[in-house]
Specification:
341 residues; mainly alpha; 78% helix
């Protein structure tokens, strides 16, 4: 009898070990913490919002495709080094996950960057700001059409508030329908579609692997695509003289605009609905206004304040359900502890 118990224990230990080592079975979603999630998502938008200035500086001194290629490769190498130090040996990608990895690496780590920077060169800043507000809309649309999320009145109202607020912040009246910006506008729309698809579909893949290594894999795949597209511009690139000012923008455009935000996004996507992640994108115009005031001295207007209130109202409304559920769980846990005592 004792031998059977020991054998059963060994068998259980062997099963649990193989389950953890298999990426396909490691699909347990971490427990949700609304306060931690909200803080992380706000931080992501601040990092993105402050990155516009640095990215604009870099594409003014380097061809857009060369810069995209450089920062994609640097991000892939940087995340890999971090993952190796903190996580050790990289996990093996299963055969069934290669196609999702190639697709997510394309839409989330290469095509979205290419279309945005090329679009920004061919359209106005006002047009790109307005059209970038479509990212959360496309994310929600993908999620509902593929039945990853259910439509609700609260989701609809929260998105409407945040979308209207972001359009007020970027001042939609400055949007131009000129034929000269049409190509750039289409490219920025493709950027919104691409990143929206990544937010809607990325969670399933990320749940099966360590988040740091998964991010590294995505950017290595993305760097392969970007490397191919950037070949013509590498042949004619003229390198600028890098001083301390330019180096500071280059470092932030890699760390603050890509590496850190993507690690944070991928850690949140495994436990938060895509629409909740996407609705925070509406904060970027608000943060861009703050960064313009802080760095460039651009004044903050009443229009910016009104739009910001609507955006924050929509974001808070989208998360009310999560905070209520967390409060109920805390209340139930507290009552159970009292009864047990």
């Amino acid at each position: 009898m004792e031998e059977k118990v020991i054998g059963l224990a060994k068998g259980t230990q062997r099963d649990s070990t193989s389950q953890v080592s298999s990426p396909k079975s490691a699909t347990v979603t971490p427990a949700a913490n609304p306060v931690s999630e909200t803080s992380t998502l706000v931080l992501i938008q601040f990092l993105f919002g402050f990155s516009y200035v640095s990215s604009k500086v870099m594409v003014s001194v380097l061809p857009a495709m060369v810069w995209v290629c450089l920062r994609t490769w640097l991000t892939a190498l940087g995340v890999s080094l971090l993952a190796f130090v903190l996580r050790g040996k990289p996990p093996r990608v299963s055969r069934g996950d290669w196609l999702p990895l190639m697709g997510l690496g394309f839409v989330g780590a290469s095509f979205n960057q290419i279309t945005f920077l090329l679009g920004l060169q061919r359209t106005t800043a006002a047009n790109s700001a307005v059209l970038s507000c479509l990212i959360p809309v496309f994310t929600l649309l993908f999620s509902i059409l593929l039945r990853r999320e259910k439509w609700s009145l609260r989701i609809g109202v929260s998105f409407a508030f945040a979308f209207l607020g972001s359009l007020i912040v970027v001042d939609i009246t400055n949007y131009s329908l000129a034929a000269t910006s049409m190509v750039g506008d289409v490219l920025v729309i493709f950027n919104a579609l691409s990143y929206g698809a990544f937010l809607a579909f990325g969670g399933d893949f990320l749940r099966r692997y360590d988040r740091l290594w998964a991010t590294a894999y995505l950017f290595f795949v993305g760097s392969f695509y970007v490397g191919i597209f950037s070949i013509p511009e590498w042949q004619v690139v003229a390198w600028p003289a890098f001083d301390g000012w330019l180096w500071s923008h280059a470092v932030y455009a890699v760390l603050g605009a890509v590496l850190i935000p993507y690690i944070l996004i991928n850690s949140v996507l495994v436990r938060v609905a895509p629409s909740k992640v996407a609705v925070f994108v509406f904060l970027q115009p608000v943060v861009a206004g703050i960064s313009g005031w802080f760095i460039l001295g651009t004044p903050l207007t009443i229009r910016w304040a009104v739009g910001s209130v609507l955006v924050f109202g929509g974001v808070i409304l989208s998360y009310l359900g999560s905070f209520r559920a967390a409060a109920r769980n805390i209340s139930v846990t507290h009552k159970d502890a009292i009864f047990k005592e």
